[in-house]
Amino acid sequence: MAIRRRKYDKQFKLDAVRLVEESQRSVAELARELGIHPNLMYKWRDKVLVDREEAFPGKGKLKPAEEELRKVRRELELVKEERDILKKALAVFSRRAL
Fold first, then answer.
1. Percent helix, strand, coil in the chain (nearest 5)?
2. Are the CB atoms for 45 and 17 separated by under 8 Å?
3. Measured distance CA(18)–CA(6) in Å, rounded
4. 28: helix, coil or strand?
5. Is residue 98 over pLDDT 70?
6. CA distance 42 to 32
7. Domain ranges in the chain?
8. Sign of CA pseudo-dihedral 42, 43, 46, 51
9. Element holding 29 (H helix, E strand)
10. Sign of the Cα pseudo-torsion (33, 35, 37, 43, in order)
């Protein structure tokens, strides 16, 4: 029997991290109360500390900066492909002219 992975929404994660920040209780105690592993709480806290606004973008979504980089890379590949096609066409037409 496979273990099903639980999923938590962004608001739950932010609330859990807020509890850790505002509470005098330990991370392990809060994690136990929420029914999650303490290591997960530490990971969430670290993500929020690095970038609170873009901490949990969602399933399959990238942070805006990463999405922009992905678009630029895709566009660069397309431009390289077009350039290579034009080089080959130039070579073909140059041979015919001779």
1. 70, 0, 30
2. yes
3. 20
4. helix
5. no
6. 13
7. 7-60, 62-98
8. negative
9. helix 27-34
10. negative
